[in-house]
Design brief:
This protein is an alpha+beta fold and about 180 residues long. It has two domains: about 1-110, no CATH class; about 120-180, no CATH class. The chain is built from six helices and four strands, in the order H-H-H-H-H-E-E-E-E-H. Helix 3 crosses helix 4. The chain is globular and about 55 Å long.
Length: about 180
C-alpha cells in the first residue's frame, strides 16, 4: 500500500502512519465494509484506519495506542473499537482487497519489476500464545514462519504464507506459488 502511495516520491522507503483523506478515499475506502445496523460511528473510518496504521507501525499493545483526546479530555475512541474494526475488515476480506488493490495500482503505474521475484522466509518470535506457533530449535524460539514474495524493487506482490516456526520454508513455497 505505501509503495502505491509514495509512487513518484523520493521518500518511498518510509512507511506511512497516516493517510490523507484523499489517499484513504482512493486506496482504502472502496475496499472497506461498513456496518449495516446500529448507530453510525462517531469517528470516521479514515481516522480508525489511521489508528490501525499507527499501531502496526509502532508494534505496541492495543491498550498502549496513543489516542487523541476530545474537547472534554476523554479519548475520542476506545482501543477495543479500533480492534473490532480491524478484525471485522480482516474477516470480510477487506485487508486482502486493499493489498491486492495496491499491487494492481503499482502494476498500472509501471512500478513493478517482475523480471526477478524473491521468495523469502523469516521466523517471528511469539511472546505469549497465538495460532500457528512452533518451537524452532535452530533459532531457539517459539514463533511462526512467514514467506513473502517480492519483486526486484522489494514491493511485496503476494500475500504472506505462514506456518509454525519449526517448519522449513520449502514446503511453504508450493502453497504460496499459486497465490502469486
Amino acid at each position: 500500500l505505501w509503495m502505491a502511495l509514495m509512487a513518484g516520491s523520493q521518500c518511498w522507503q518510509t512507511i506511512p502512519t497516516k493517510l490523507s483523506l484523499a489517499q484513504f478515499e482512493q486506496f482504502v475506502l472502496p475496499h472497506l465494509s461498513t456496518g449495516r445496523r446500529g448507530p453510525a460511528p462517531t469517528l470516521g473510518l479514515h481516522r480508525i484506519f489511521n489508528y490501525i496504521l499507527q499501531l502496526l507501525y509502532m508494534g505496541c499493545q492495543w491498550k498502549a495506542l496513543p489516542i487523541e483526546r476530545n474537547a472534554d479530555g476523554r479519548p475520542e475512541i476506545h482501543y477495543t473499537r479500533i480492534y473490532r474494526a480491524l478484525r471485522r475488515w480482516q474477516a470480510d476480506g477487506c485487508i486482502d482487497a486493499i493489498f491486492a488493490g495496491s499491487v494492481r495500482k503499482l502494476h498500472q503505474d509501471g512500478l513493478l519489476e517482475l523480471t526477478v521475484i524473491h521468495g523469502d522466509g523469516t521466523t517471528t518470535a511469539a511472546k505469549k500464545g497465538g495460532d500457528n506457533l512452533g518451537y524452532s530449535g535452530h533459532k531457539h524460539l517459539k514463533g511462526d514462519k512467514v514467506v513473502a514474495f517480492c519483486d526486484r524493487r522489494c514491493n511485496v506482490i503476494a500475500p504472506f504464507v505462514s506456518a509454525p516456526g519449526n517448519r522449513n520454508e520449502s514446503p511453504l513455497l508450493r502453497e504460496a506459488l499459486p497465490r502469486l
